């Protein structure tokens, strides 16, 4: 019997898109189950991820794996005969893990403070976001992809946020200065595994506007 793979997700979740891209790059077939995060989480989600109760959760032959970065590494190890996601060199692997951690904590979390917060009270966060995204752009440098000439782990981790940049700018009333990341994003979008799953900018913006009303900041 082949592998039974199920992905619990939410259509706009950048962390879920990471997993969809990785499974796409590996050519792994899976069943996708959309969670209604804004209303009631499914019993399956609560059973499979009782600690965080968040998506994505990858269920492989009945066994759940949570946290997108951990899921990416799991996928890379389990389906290792297809294109590798992580570098094989230990130092390059550590470098990739460092920058995904930086991105999650110093770009995504800072940006989330902005798009869920009172924008006129967030000058520090706005500066931080611009500066930290510049640091990510410096890691890319002149390379086509973060790992060099091939699309890999760090690209997969960051590209799902690409269509959120314009919403960061609109809601935060700020200007991101990352022309190389824009070029890189368009380059990644040429890959079917990316273009198939990345949200549209207008959908992201509509979601954030709705969410801000829901939590009473707008
Ligand atoms: N560190 C985790 C973050 C997952 C997450 O925040 N998932 C959100 C949807 S995307 O914003 C989620 O499931 N939220 C539901 C909740 O917070 O209850 C990862 O990398 O997988």
From TrEMBL:
One Pfam family named in its UniProt record: GST_N
MF (Gene Ontology) = glutathione transferase activity
> Which CDD domains does the record cross-reference, listed alphabetically?
GST_C_Tau (cd03185), GST_N_Tau (cd03058)
Q: Which residues form the GST C-terminal domain?
A: 89-211
Specify whether Coiled coil is a keyword of the entry: yes
Catalysed reactions listed for this entry: RX + glutathione = an S-substituted glutathione + a halide anion + H(+)
Which GO cellular component terms, listed alphabetically, does the Swiss-Prot or TrEMBL entry include?
Answer: cytosol
What EC number(s) is this enzyme filed under?
2.5.1.18
- GST N-terminal domain spans which residues? 3-83
Q: Which GO terms describe its biological process?
A: glutathione metabolic process
Coiled-coil ranges from the UniProt annotation: 112-139
Q: What does this protein do?
A: Is involved in the conjugation of reduced glutathione to a wide number of exogenous and endogenous hydrophobic electrophiles.
Q: Which family does it belong to?
A: Belongs to the GST superfamily.
Q: What is this protein called?
A: Glutathione S-transferase
């Amino acid at each position: 019997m082949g592998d039974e793979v199920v992905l619990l997700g939410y259509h706009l979740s950048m962390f879920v898109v990471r997993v969809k891209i990785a499974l796409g790059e590996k050519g792994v077939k899976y069943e996708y189950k959309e969670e209604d995060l804004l209303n009631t989480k499914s019993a399956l989600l609560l059973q499979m991820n009782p600690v965080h109760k968040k998506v994505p959760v990858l269920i492989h032959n009945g066994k759940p794996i949570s946290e997108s970065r951990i899921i990416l590494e799991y996928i890379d190890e389990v389906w290792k005969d297809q294109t590798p996601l992580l570098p094989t060199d230990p130092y390059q692997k550590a470098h990739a893990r460092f920058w995904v951690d930086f991105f999650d904590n110093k770009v995504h979390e800072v940006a989330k403070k902005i798009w869920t917060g009172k924008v006129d009270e967030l000058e520090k966060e706005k500066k931080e976001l611009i500066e930290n995204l510049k640091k990510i752009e410096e890691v890319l440098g002149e390379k086509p992809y973060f790992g060099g000439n091939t699309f890999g782990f760090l690209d997969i981790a960051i590209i799902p946020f690409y269509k959120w940049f314009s919403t960061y700018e609109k809601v935060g009333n700020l200007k991101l200065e990352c022309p190389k990341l824009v070029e890189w994003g368009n380059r990644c979008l040429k890959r079917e595994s990316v273009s198939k799953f990345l949200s549209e900018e207008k959908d992201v913006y509509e979601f954030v506007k709705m969410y801000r009303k829901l939590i009473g900041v707008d």
